[in-house]
Amino acid sequence: MAAKNDAKFTVPGLSIEDGHQVANTLQARLHALNDLQLTLKHAHWNVVGRGFISVHEMLDPQIELVRGFVDELAERMATLGVSPNGLPGNLVKTRGWDDYAVHRGTVTEHLTALNEVYNGIISSHREAIEAVGEIDPITEDMLIGQTGQLELFQWFMRSHLENDAGELNAT
Ligand SMILES: [Fe+2]
């Protein structure tokens, strides 16, 4: 039985059950991306030291991109007939990760921590791609596009962390 926030429709060509199942898979991704855009701003404000300005300025376009992903994903949920939950209380209550641990910190400290955040987000996006791919290629396509952009930015961050031997310097 549909919850009271669910619509009595989904997109044409899917059963209501399948459409709502796909949308419900997206709820955790919505919380993860909302958490990410806040965490990236926190890093933008708190990064200090050598390389400050390049990292400070590198983060803002990524924040705008992720905010766009949040909107795109929430509206896909609504299109599929399920009410997206964008509330911070629900985010904190249901998320499976702790708050970002770095406050005032160096470029290396922030990029190392953000690299870990991206490992989690990208892995979970890939799991969601697997989960929805058989049912809804439109939602799958959206998640694939987002994941590619998240992976690109992770490469930007990792490039800052490489030492002269080409290894990730994670200290
Ligand atoms: Fe700013």
Strand order of the largest sheet: 1-2
Percent in strands:
under 5%
Helix content: 55-70%
Low-confidence stretches: none
Count of strand segments: 2
Give a quick account of the main beta sheet: strands, pairing sense, barrel closure: 2 strands, parallel
| SSE sequence, one letter per element | HEHHEHH
Summed over residues and divided by their number, the pLDDT gives a mean of: 94
The ligands bound in this entry are: fe (ii) ion
Please describe what this structure looks like:
With 171 residues, the protein is mainly alpha-helical. The chain is built from five helices and two strands; from the N terminus they run αβααβαα. It has helices at residues 16-46, 52-79, 88-94, 107-133, 137-161, and strands at residues 47-48, 105-106. The protein has a two-stranded parallel ribbon with strand order 1-2. Helix 1 packs antiparallel against helix 4 (107-133) and helix 4 (107-133) runs antiparallel to helix 5. It starts with 15 loop residues before the first helix and ends in a 10-residue tail after the last helix. The mean pLDDT is 94. The structure holds fe (ii) ion.
